[in-house]
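User: Predict the full complex structure for these chains.
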Amino acid sequence: MIFRKPLENIEHPEMPADVVIVGGGPAGMACALRLSQLIDQHNAQNPDSQLNKENVYVLEKARELGQHCLSGALLDPRSMRKLLPGFEKEAPLDAEVAKESVYFLTEKGKLKFPITPPALRDHGNYVISLNRFVKWLGGKVEEAGITVFTGFAGSELLVDGNRVTGVRTDDKGVDKQNQPKSNFEPGYDLNAKIVILAEGPRGSLTKQLIAKFDLAKDRNPQTYGQGIKELWEVPAGRIAAGEVIYTMGWPLTSKEYGGAWIYGGKDNVVSLGFVTGLDYPDPRLDPQHVLQDFKRHPFVAKLLEGGKMIRYGAKSLPYGGWWAIPPLAGDGWMIIGDSAGFLNSQRLKGIHLAIKSGMLAAETAFEALKSSDFSAVKLGDFQKRVESSWIKEELWKVRNFHQGFEHGFWRGMFHAGLQQLTGGRGMRNRYPATSGYQRMKRLADLPADGGGEAHLLGPAKGDGKLTFTKLTDLYHSGTKHEEDQPSHLIIQNTDICNSRCIKEFGSPCQNFCPANVYEMVDDAEQPHGKRISLNPSNCVHCKTCDIQDPYQIITWVPPEGGGGPNYDGM
Amino acid sequence: MKILVCIKQVPQKDTPLKLNEYGTWIREDVSYEVNEPDAFALEEALRQKEKHGGEVVAITAGPARSQQVLREALAKGADRAIHLEDNAFVGLDAFNTARAFAAAIKDEQFDLIFTGLQSDDYGYAQTGVILAELLGWPHATIIMQIEKTDAGIRVKRELEAGYFQFVDIPLPAVLTIQSGINKLRYATLIGIKQAKNKPMRKVSFDDVKGAVTGNLQKIERLYIPEKTKNTEYMEGTPSEIAKKLVDKLRNEVHVL
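Assistant: Here is the predicted structure of the two-chain assembly.
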């Protein structure tokens, strides 16, 4: 197996940049648009000291804007109303939330919560397709004259001492053997005054940055969930546009964290999905299987009956909250959106925080450009802006929410209740957290038949109508990559997969990957008769493998730009 | 050489498609891309220009979203672009698209016009050929190679069953290019940035309306084929089965 690695002795063309935003999701786009607005305002007022937008760039690894954006999604309009007052009139919104309910599911039954918990009250929010929303927002950015490079990933951070000096884009035209093809194009070195990382959860450059400057020190480890989503078209009258349903409980047991959403969109399209906390104990658990089980519940099956699944996708999301957020700025860099961990795990919402953090970073970058000061002190203003904004206010109240669930559902409910009464404090100011992969148990310590979790384990079978195998689901993600390229999933040492992991954990990569990238294939020469094999072209860029592998030997790096899922309408 | 390349924006391959409510075309909420044979046509034009000098101009007809294919062409090295921009161009048949193109370029002097062999959506393979007819130029289809000669060009056409045909053609001429004729280049960051400042001429539907007539071809109905499966078992000795199978393939299925 040949893994992607930087080619040696390659000249990289250089391009100067003022600001490079890595990632064209809601955070990156809001950041670019806000920066453009500030520069326009400044230029209108200061004819003698003009600032230039020419060298503000956004890199987006998807072939088109929005194609890698996946969320439920509900939009809390708070930050958008500031960014583009009156945006509701023209943005692609499916419906305003009109009705919400929360259920606790047992295998066949359901208990409706008598009142909707405050955190899950969504009146005033909008059901949206994040894909369509970001496409629209990106259009605004391009109209404003900011250059968005779609189909280009940030593959390496350029660092000089303590300063981030730019971003190198991906090499294009590298074959399976990691050799240049006849149409090879080396990545560009974008030498930037400010690099803003907006890569989404578990960003690959953000990971490099955190490791390089030891940014996880004194923080809780980031914890994650994996969201699996299907978009359905159902017969008219099943669910109104703007109706929102949350469920807890079945098919998960009290040992796993997670829950489902069902959102009614327009044209009888239903968004449904299941988020499974990536801190489950049994390595045989398969989150895609969890969603299939969920759909078999009579309540859900009835809703979907006679409908058609039209799209599938998967994405990780950061659950860790306030205590897991790394330092937000340093010499030449800032981190925004899900890359920083701006997500409210109690409300299951992050888009409004991503947008707000992007706007605050833009305001910081604007001041830095005006004073030509890109130091840690100057950009450190971003940290202050976040801490004095409603981002902190919102996240502070739920700072211990997810940690409260580390010891199961019922204790979690107790802590959540207590935190509600104490302004987020609960038992103490800061609850510690454990990385999810460390909570995975060895097969020897688990019942061979799966015990109470048996129904969740291993691959889903799929009846082809209501439930689907992973490969059928994957087909509906529109995933496509250049086939002739090295594997962008880098396994540090495959001996661990073939000799240790298979025995100790039963190769959980096959289960947690929602896209059948990882396979154990027969190989008589291996100690346990099987060896790891990769199908990188299937990858939906969810980053779960990088997060959840129990030995932390998998590194996700961007494949050739332009490849990946196509989340049209998701 | 001054070369015009006709580029069409088509729904992205492998996109799950949904029919519109009349069942006459697909719903438009899909991603689009450059029609694949047109990408090879553009690449070939750029290579000819690199060899012989001249100019490469990209043209497309379609709504605002289709500007993307021209931006890509400019980013890869086309010198300028012509956009026949209007929703009304979406439903035109090959004949009228060719007429609209002919009208839009009436004041230009091209040596060559390239189109892709056919489009990935309609697959008519007619626009280029009709355009040649309207202009009164010679044309050749399914082009695998182009060489400049003293008198014009010599092209290699792909025929059936591995055969090729070489044809000498005077200029100006229209060629429809086969996929795989070359290896596509990538757009570069600097190319994308420079593309922003390259000229793009807009042509409205009104500008060419005089040249366009009612469609001669129309899609009556589009439907997703229903999957049917029919399994038959044949019994007998292997040679009897072989005989029955040949009989079936020849006389019932008509594939032999």
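Chain A has 16 helices and 24 strands.
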